[in-house]
């Protein structure tokens, strides 16, 4: 990660930096992201999720209808723009509303239900950048659209924990809660509002504001002044109707059976307001400890059920759905994160040396033969001398070199050199893949 102060350059001679809160992914850092995304996709595909990619730009109303403007990511943090044709567009701040928009506009209701989708890509929130909080960040998400069944709620949590485990995060803290359905949540909202109104003088100005615009969000307040009030506030699970209670209980039974350790957090409401019933958040074991000290544990991922979102986006009927997103940047920053290598990166065990102009001309043909045979090689096509190229091969510690010189070009052969004992074999070009596959590695 770049540590320079981003966003501005003081004089014209300095190079332009990426905008504040965004960064370039270069070299190993890029590969780490790719490795994570590939592993997460492999797990998602195994469980029947299919990839979906939605545009980075959406009509603003996908978010203003799906989430109210009282939600911070819409009201305060969304990047919006007006096009030359006067469309109001937004850089997507999250992936769930776009997925539901795509489910509806692509006619996915007509497919066998539920539709299980996964996605990976950049999201944008105009927040104050700090460690683990960026203006451009990457999420890997899973969504199950078209089923109210609690087993999907548990499967989503389980898969998030599994993916984190593959990335080295072994003991994540999973917090769960249920916000209830339309009916029982109303009763709870009334109780919570009336409780907070009684304590209006003791809480911060933001809580008083939230009490008017989005009462459940008072429970998201991190201000120490409000902590005692929050601690004694009524909890949503005490107000669940029989059906929601059953759903929550089943969800936890599945989690037990799936070996997921979790704890109920009665004040977990999440920052987005499309949720109903199940909500959950995952904090890494390391950052839970760090955060407990500093009061700043950052979630590695979170999600929940959003049974009413489709209707808010224009569907004639509700589409019960459940999903989650993992914050990939935060996962890669976790102390226990262990890099996952992308599939395309195989350490080459053969270095290709070419000598002279004719060999350079032929080198592409040789490389293509080996690429098609899936034999990874390294080379340095800009170099000319044998000594320099052998030197690079030695530094790379490859066991074999292929040498192509003037004579070999004429004969349609190459020399295969074993680096350890300097022995050499001349091999016909068409036999080369077979020959290399049988070499000792
Ligand atoms: P979210 O909790 O807003 O949920 O974001 C999910 C994860 O994205 C967070 O837990 C965090 O790891 C990461 N994240 C969020 N903001 C930032 C940021 N500024 N910088 C770095 N990482 C960040 C959602 O976005 C929902 N769409 C999740 C969901 C899917 N619910 C149902 N389905």
TrEMBL record:
It holds the Pfam family HGTP_anticodon. Its EC number is 6.1.1.21. CDD domains: HisRS-like_core. GO terms for molecular function: ATP binding; histidine-tRNA ligase activity. It is an enzyme of class 6 (ligase). Residues 1-11 have a biased composition (Basic residues). GO terms for biological process: histidyl-tRNA aminoacylation. Keywords: Aminoacyl-tRNA synthetase, ATP-binding, Cytoplasm, Ligase, Nucleotide-binding, Protein biosynthesis. Signal peptide: none annotated. It catalyses: tRNA(His) + L-histidine + ATP = L-histidyl-tRNA(His) + AMP + diphosphate + H(+). SUPFAM superfamilies: Class II aaRS ABD-related (SSF52954), Class II aaRS and biotin synthetases (SSF55681). One of its GO terms (cellular component) is cytoplasm. The keyword ATP-binding applies. Residues 36-333 form the Aminoacyl-transfer RNA synthetases class-II family profile domain. It is found in: Cytoplasm. Residues 1-23 are annotated as: Disordered. L-histidine binds at residues 94-96, 125, 139, 143, 270, 274-275. HAMAP family: His_tRNA_synth. Belongs to the class-II aminoacyl-tRNA synthetase family. Homodimer. This is Histidine--tRNA ligase. It comes from Candidatus Vogelbacteria bacterium RIFOXYD1_FULL_51_18. The lineage of its organism: Bacteria, Candidatus Vogeliibacteriota. The gene is hisS.
């Amino acid at each position: 990660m770049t540590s320079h102060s981003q966003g501005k350059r003081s004089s014209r001679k300095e190079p332009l930096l990426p905008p504040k809160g965004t960064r370039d992914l270069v070299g190993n850092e890029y590969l780490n992201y790719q490795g994570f995304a590939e592993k997460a996709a492999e797990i998602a595909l195994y469980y029947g999720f299919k990839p979906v990619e939605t545009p980075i730009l959406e009509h603003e109303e996908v978010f203003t209808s799906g989430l109210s403007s009282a939600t911070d990511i819409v009201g305060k943090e969304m990047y919006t723009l007006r096009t030359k044709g006067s469309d109001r567009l937004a850089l997507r701040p999250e992936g769930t509303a776009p997925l539901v928009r795509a489910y509806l506009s692509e006619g996915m209701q007509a497919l066998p239900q539920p539709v299980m989708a996964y996605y990976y890509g950049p999201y944008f929130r105009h927040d104050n950048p700090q460690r683990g909080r960026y203006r451009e960040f990457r999420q890997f998400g899973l969504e199950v659209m078209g089923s109210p069944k609690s087993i999907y709620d548990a499967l989503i949590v389980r898969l998030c924990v599994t993916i984190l485990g593959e990335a080295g995060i072994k003991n994540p803290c999973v917090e769960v809660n249920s916000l209830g359905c339309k009916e029982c949540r109303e009763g709870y909202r009334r109780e919570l509002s009336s409780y907070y109104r009684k304590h209006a003088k003791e809480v911060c100005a933001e809580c008083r504001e939230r009490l008017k615009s989005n009462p459940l969000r008072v429970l998201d307040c991190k201000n120490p002044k409000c902590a005692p009030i929050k601690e004694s506030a009524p909890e949503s699970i005490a107000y669940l109707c029989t059906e929601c209670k059953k759903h929550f209980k089943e969800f936890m039974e599945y989690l037990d059976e799936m070996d997921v350790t979790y704890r109920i957090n009665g004040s977990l409401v999440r920052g987005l307001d499309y949720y109903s019933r199940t909500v959950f958040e995952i904090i890494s074991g390391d950052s839970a400890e760090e955060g407990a000290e500093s009061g700043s544990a950052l979630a590695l991922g979170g999600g929940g059920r959003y049974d009413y979102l489709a209707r808010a986006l224009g569907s004639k009927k509700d589409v019960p759905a459940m999903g989650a997103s993992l914050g990939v940047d935060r996962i890669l920053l976790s102390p226990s994160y262990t890099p996952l290598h992308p599939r395309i990166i195989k350490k080459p065990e053969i270095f290709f040396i070419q000598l002279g102009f004719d060999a350079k001309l032929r080198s592409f043909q040789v490389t293509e033969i080996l690429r098609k045979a899936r034999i990874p090689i390294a080379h340095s096509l800009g170099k000319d001398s044998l000594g320099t190229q052998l030197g690079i091969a030695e530094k790379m510690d490859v066991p074999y070199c292929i040498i192509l010189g003037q004579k070999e070009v004429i004969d349609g052969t190459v020399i295969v050199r074993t680096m350890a004992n300097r022995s050499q074999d001349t091999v016909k070009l068409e036999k080369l893949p077979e020959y290399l596959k049988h070499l000792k590695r």
